C-alpha cells in the first residue's frame, strides 16, 4: 500500500498545548521511577515524534521532578525511519516551527541544519513496523496517530483501533489528527 509522508515539527501547535494539559492526570498518577510510554505509529521522518519528545522534556511530575519518558516511533517506510534515527533536519524545517529557546536547548547547529540533542535521541526507539500486521507495543500511556486513518479503508481502521486499544493502558490516551475519522463499513 502507498502512503503519503507528511511531517513537520509542532504541526498544529494548539494540539500540543491541549495534549500537555491532557497528560497532567497521567503524569500525576505515575509512581517514582515510572516512565511515560508513548507510541507514534506512521512517524514518517520523525518530526512529530521529536516534537512530542521536546514537549515531554518540559513536563514535570507532581513532585516537581523531570518526567521520565520513552517514545517508540514506527513506520513502514525504512528510508523515513533512517532519517528519523539520524535526527538531522534542514535549517528551515527547524526554524519555521520550533521556538528559538527549544532550538538553543535541544539542538546542535550543523552545516545546513540542526541535529537533535543526544539526550533526547537516547529516549527514543525508531523501528520499521507495519502497524496493521505486527504486534503492537504494550502498556502505553499515549498513542498519537495523525495522518494514518485517512488512508485506510473502514475494515483496516477498525483493525487499527483494536490494535491501539490493546496497546493502551486503562488510562491511556489516543490522539488522532483533525482530519481523521472512523468510517463505518458500507453495506
Strand and helix layout:
Layout: H1 13-28, E1 36-40, H2 47-57, E2 69-75, H3 78-86, E3 88-90, H4 91-95, H5 100-106, E4 107-110, E5 113-116, H6 118-121, E6 124-128, E7 140-145, H7 154-167, E8 168-176
Parallel strand pairs: 1-2, 1-7, 2-6, 7-8
Antiparallel strand pairs: 3-5, 4-5
Structure description:
- There is one protein chain.
- The protein has 187 residues and is α/β, with parallel strands linked by helices.
- 35% of the residues lie in helices and 23% in strands.
- It has seven helices and eight strands; from the N terminus they run αβαβαβααββαββαβ.
- The protein has helices spanning 13-28, 47-57, 78-86, 91-95, 100-106, 118-121, 154-167, and strands spanning 36-40, 69-75, 88-90, 107-110, 113-116, 124-128, 140-145, 168-176.
- The strands form two sheets. A five-stranded parallel beta sheet has the order 6-2-1-7-8. A three-stranded antiparallel beta sheet has the order 3-5-4.
- The radius of gyration is 16 Å and the shape is globular.
- The two termini are 24 Å apart.
